[in-house]
Automatic annotation (TrEMBL):
Ranges of residues in domain FYVE-type: 66-121
UniProt keyword list: Metal-binding, Repeat, Zinc, Zinc-finger
Pfam families hit by this protein: RIM2a_ZnF
Zinc among keywords: yes
A GO molecular-function annotation: small GTPase binding
Protein name: RabBD domain-containing protein
Gene3D superfamilies: Zinc/RING finger domain, C3HC4 (zinc finger)
GO cellular component, one term: presynaptic membrane
GO biological process: calcium ion-regulated exocytosis of neurotransmitter; intracellular protein transport; positive regulation of synaptic transmission; regulation of membrane potential; regulation of synaptic plasticity
Occurrences of domain RabBD (ranges): 7-133
Signal peptide: none
InterPro entries in UniProt: Rab_BD, Rim-like, RIM_Znf, Znf_FYVE-rel, Znf_FYVE_PHD, Znf_RING/FYVE/PHD
Length: 179
């Protein structure tokens, strides 16, 4: 809350109460900064994974019909005895047992390469699997929050404010002084 116009009027509060409220605002700002950093880190990881997948697909496309076509398209070391391997459910690349594994999607077992498994974990941690368009919207409209994000910020702010009020009320015993 660097902008003074966004700061509520705290002039009617005592210095101690004002300090408590300001600490809540500072904690909220710190948490939001951490969340932004985590989101940026997750976005960078997702971009890196997508880049690796696209590179592997390009290499696999070039190797179609050659002797090297029967290798793991992730590590590009393991040769398949039957020439097939397991095809990733998400990216369609063939992978060996070291570079992939079975995952569960909607109560059915699927094969996913290690890159796509990591991608799915990041999407699940950040919640982007649920609203991928919102993630695109945030990056394209920097500085303009979506309604969902505004509601989350409001709920977080409100919970911090209530916590501060409860702390103040228990510290000053103001509820006991009411008739």
């Amino acid at each position: 809350m660097d902008d003074p116009s966004l700061m509520p009027d705290l002039s009617h509060l005592s210095a101690e109460e004002r300090e408590i409220i300001e600490q809540v605002f500072k904690r909220q700002k710190d948490e939001e900064a951490k969340e932004v950093q985590l989101t940026l880190k997750a976005d960078a990881e997702l971009d890196q994974i997508d880049k690796q997948i696209n590179e592997r697909k390009e290499i696999a496309r070039k190797l179609v019909g050659t002797q090297d076509d029967a290798i793991c398209q992730i590590c590009q070391r393991t040769k398949f005895a039957d020439g097939i391997g397991h095809k990733c459910f998400y990216c369609q690349l063939r992978s060996c047992a070291r570079c992939g594994g079975r995952s569960h999607s909607k109560n059915k077992a699927i094969w996913a390469c290690s890159l796509c498994q990591k991608r799915q974990q990041i999407l699940a941690k950040t919640g982007k699997w649920f609203q991928p368009d919102e993630a695109q919207h945030k990056t394209s409209n920097a500085g303009h929050e979506s309604p969902c994000q505004n509601m989350r910020l409001f709920k977080r702010f409100f919970s911090h404010l209530l916590r501060a009020i409860l702390i103040m009320s228990s510290a000053t015993h103001c509820w006991k002084s009411y008739p």
